[in-house]
Amino acid sequence: xxxxxxxxxxxxxxxxxxxxxxxxxxxxxxxxxxxxxxxxxxxxxxxxxxxxxxxxxxxxxxxxxxxxxxxxxxxxxxxxxxxxxxxxxxxxxxxxxxxxxxxxxxxxxxxxxxxxxxxxxxxxxxxxxxxxxxxxxxxxxxxxxxxxxxxxxxxxxxxxxxxxxxxxxxxxxxxxxxxxxxxxxxxxxxxxxxxxxxxxxxxxxxxxxxxx
Length: 212
Prior knowledge:
The chain is an alpha+beta fold. The chain has helices at residues 7-21, 113-124, 129-132, 155-158; strands spanning 26-30, 36-40, 46-49, 66-69, 77-82, 85-86, 89-90, 95-100, 103-107, 138-144, 165-170, 184-189, 193-196, 199-203, 206-207. The protein has one domain (2-207). Helix content is 17%, strand content 33%. The strands form two sheets. It has an eight-stranded antiparallel sheet with strand order 9-8-5-2-1-13-14-15, with no helix packed on it. Strands 3-4-10-11-12-6-7 form a seven-stranded antiparallel sheet, covered by helices on one side. The longest helix has 15 residues, at 7-21. It is globular and about 45 Å long.
């Protein structure tokens, strides 16, 4: 699986992407499953999830190999279709989420829908109206670069699968966002196409943009 990746090669490839991200603020994500979403980024893309821990106190998820970013609040609109895995469980029936101004407004019927709604509703109970309205904020978007990883229904492995994308709902306070609820849930999308202005980053689940 993903643990057997060549992390030195991965580090090189990830840092090679950094220059592509400069001055590109707008992102579009589509997928055969029906995802069609646009957003602006609210911080720099992170390309340091490379599996190499060589500084004291450094902490990293393993397997590593994802590139991710904080979507600027209130900028994401469209539809996300989660068809790979949700919270580390493989998906049979895709979860369709409608997003308006950065927040999930509707989730289609699926085996996970009730659990998602109950989890966020529970958090909302203790919040004022304004804060409760944004609990289902899309907190993070990213894609995997690890060629050895496979979508197997394991949270940490699924999100680094090469060419798969992931969205995280919930707390975005680590990036300076307003939704500090202490809870996140995440889902993986298969075969996405990810475009930045004039660059195809990922095309149908294949990484295409890299600096030679």
